[in-house]
Structure formats: C-alpha cells, structure tokens
Amino acid sequence: MNTPDSLNTKSNNLFNLISKNWEELDDSLKTKLIKIWRVLTYKWQLQILFNLPFLLWWVLDKSFPKVHKFDTTIMHYLNLPDWALSFIGFGQ
User: Fold this and answer.
1) Which residues have a Cβ under 8 Å from the Cβ of 70 and sit 6 or more positions away?
2) Nearest-angstrom CA–CA distance, 30 and 51
3) How far apart are CA 66 and CA 87, in angstroms?
4) What is the torsional sign of CA 23, 25, 29, 33?
C-alpha cells in the first residue's frame, strides 16, 4: 500500500536526481543552459504580455452577461440582404 511518505520519496528522488546532474555539469555548459532558459522564459513572458488584452476581454465578457442580450430588430433596420445576414448568424 502506498503511503504519503512513499509517494513523496519518488518526487524527492526525481528532484535529487535532477539537482545531482545539474551539479555535475561543467560551468560552461551550465551558463549555456541558463542563457537558453532565459531566452525561453523571456519569450513566454512576451507571449503572456501579448495575450493579456484578450484575456482581459474574455474576463469582461464572462462577467457581464447583459452584453449577450442582443436586440435582433437592429439587424432588420439595416436592410441587409438575407445572404449577408446568414453569414453573421442571423439568417432564417
């Protein structure tokens, strides 16, 4: 039977294995890996920064349900042809 201690030793063993391998690396290889890691995380930060306005838009969309109550009579006042209305989801 697995106990919490036996489950934690697996994760500790994995962490110890990674840290042991990291300590055994050469300094030049460590610096190269650190530079690669910084470039990757920098790009992740940029991706999060670029996606932040869309995330904010999504949160506002979910928090105000009145936005989704749309009066379809406005579409009839525009006198759009039926094929154009079907493209935007208001066709018959």
Assistant:
1) none
2) 31
3) 23
4) negative
**pLDDT single digits (tens) 9-62:** 555 688 888 889 889 999 999 999 999 988 888 888 888 889 989 988 888 888
Q: Which amino acid is at 21?
A: N
| Three-state DSSP class for residue 30 | helix
Cα 7 to its chain centre, rounded Å, is 29
Alpha helices in 1-88 (DSSP H): 4-24, 27-63, 73-77, 82-87
Q: Write down the pLDDT at residue 29.
A: 93
**Which tokens is 78 given?**
């525009």
Give 82's contacts (C-beta < 8 A, 6+ positions apart). 91, 92
Q: Which two tokens stand for residue 49?
A: 């920064």
